[in-house]
Amino acid sequence: MTPDAAIQAEGLTKRYGETTAVDSLRFTLPRGATWGLLGGNGAGKSTTIAMLLGILVPSEGRVTVLGHDMARNRFAALVRMNFSSPYVALPHRLTVAENLRVYAHLYDVPRAEARIAELAETLQLEEILHRRAGQLSAGQKTRVALAKALVNRPELLLLDEPTASLDPDTGDWVRSWLERYREESGCAILLASHNMAEVERLCGHVLMMKRGRLVAEGSPAELVTRFGRDNLEDVFLDIARDRRALGETTA
Ligand SMILES: Nc1ncnc2c1ncn2[C@@H]1O[C@H](COP(=O)(O)OP(=O)(O)OP(=O)(O)O)[C@@H](O)[C@H]1O
């Protein structure tokens, strides 16, 4: 076990019958680092995140989060981590404030009302605190989802498509906010995204998945150089379209 690792994944594998959704994934995310988890549709990103959260049991392999083996002691890790995904809707009929109170309670957050007020201020939620979650715009929902993800001051944040369906201005606001937040908090972030410019801006290191396997990794600049491309989007397309033999690209 690496003591200063936020996540250590060793031989992580998930099979559904004949389909191997995640195949022998191995990586170590250091504490305080922001890494990107990339891959085309069906590459295995969501399955990986679900195993990191302990929602899915791996078919093989092991996940250690903040020093805790997720198979044996996941609740010790879960209170110190959090996640946000556009595919997980907050209860629609509860107001934003009620939702945040429920999650604050679930995570046993001390002085919950003060924490909610603090998040409402920094994430510009004050005007919508008493609106039902089901009545919010996509941008408002994203800010509420981030507030939910931060309610327990996590040391590790798993973000699945944090800016999907946001207009460019709101997306930029969320990215700037995340940059500030991680500087202040020292939180480690694993970010799954299809937005390559976002990944180049936020992530110091990128894991590229294809058909469940880790096929390339490195900093965005290293990957761009290794593939002889101008940007990460072109690297992504090379990998997705098999324009380079994957064996050449593996770090
Ligand atoms: N419950 C399931 N039963 C069977 N197959 C599944 C299940 N969940 C995922 N898969 C398969 O596992 C593979 C990986 O899916 P996953 O959702 O992890 O990919 P992804 O990279 O998150 O894709 P996307 O970018 O489209 O969200 C796919 O082939 C998918 O069809």
From TrEMBL:
TM stretches of this protein: none
SMART domains, alphabetized: AAA
CDD domains, per database record: ABC_DR_subfamily_A
GO molecular function: ATP binding; ATP hydrolysis activity
Alphabetized UniProt keyword annotations: ATP-binding, Nodulation, Nucleotide-binding, Transport
Family matches, as PROSITE patterns: ABC_TRANSPORTER_1, ABC_TRANSPORTER_2
Coiled-coil regions listed in the entry: none
Domain ABC transporter: 7-236
Family membership: Belongs to the ABC transporter superfamily.
Protein name: ABC transporter ATP-binding protein
Source organism of this protein record: Teichococcus coralli
